[in-house]
Each structure stands twice: as structure tokens, then as C-alpha cells.
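Check my protein:
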Amino acid sequence: MRNPIPEGGMPTPYKTTPRFDENTLPEAIRNAHSTKAGVWGLLVVDEGSARLVFHEPRREVEVFPGRPAKIPPQSIHHVETAQDVQLHVEFFREEPNP
């Protein structure tokens, strides 16, 4: 079943991780990984900043509060954090348009 898209154009996440900081961010997120086919991620920084690093092609995206970063399905990536960061990841079955 597809997620309904509210009037603002942003689908509802079907799953959201807990909020992590620079000490609690799991190694699985710090190391190379990807989402499954058909699953989009959205890295949301609530406080501080983080870097979303895509492996192929290599590119880096700075993520700040109010400026989340999309993670396309099956894109190999990892997350690097700064001090005093609070972040979480939302998962969608359709491309999010923050």
C-alpha cells in the first residue's frame, strides 16, 4: 500500500529512527550502507550539522536543521557527524520532497 501524499506534497514516512547524537549514532549508519529497492531515506538534522556522503558517484551533502537530505533507494552512503548533533532518519516508499 502506498503512503498518502498530504496536500503539502510530502508523503508520510512509514518508519522513523530514534533521535541520535554523535555518541549514539549506530556504526551501521556511520559505515557504508544503502536502503532497499523502493525505499527512500531522509536524513533530518534537528540540531548541529552532519555530512551525508554518497559513494558512487562520490559527493558530500551538508545537512542542517531545516535542510534535510534525500537518500535515493539503493544508494551506498554513510553519515559523518559534528559535535552536538541531533538527527534522525525517516523512511518513505515514495520520493520525499522536503
Notes: The first strand starts at residue 15 and ends at 16. Confidence is low (pLDDT under 50) at residues 1-6. Strands lie at 15-16, 20-21, 40-47, 50-55, 58-63, 69-71, 77-81, 86-92.
